[in-house]
Amino acid sequence: MVLSPHERMRAAEEAVRQLKDALGGVGVVLPSLDVERVSAAGTYGLPLVDLGRCNIDTALRLAAVLHERAGL
User: Fold this and answer.
1) What string of pLDDT tens digits covers the 72 residues of the chain?
2) Burial call 35-61: b when 16+ CB within 10 Å, e when fewer
3) Are 23 and 59 in contact (CB under 8 A)?
4) Are 4 and 39 in contact (CB under 8 A)?
5) Cβ-count burial of 12 within 10 angstroms (0-12 exposed, 13-18 middle, 19+ buried)?
6) Strand locations in the chain (E)
7) Residue 8: exposed, middle, or buried by beta-carbon count in 10 A (0-12, 13-18, 19+)?
């Protein structure tokens, strides 16, 4: 099944929304989290999700959440 450009973008935006909600639920905010616009312009596959940049505090909070979830 081939998705239209609009469907591809909607799928990527929904993935970003779900990831933002999930990260926010554990107190982590990635301020630059978004759809990677260059990949969205293509016609093959789905656009990429750009996790963006974050400060050291956010990186450490994300690592702590992941470690906790992994049981480390």
Assistant:
1) 677 888 888 999 999 999 999 999 988 899 999 999 888 877 777 899 999 999 999 999 999 999 998 886
2) beeebeeeeeebbebbeeebeeebeeb
3) no
4) no
5) buried
6) 34-35, 49-50
7) buried
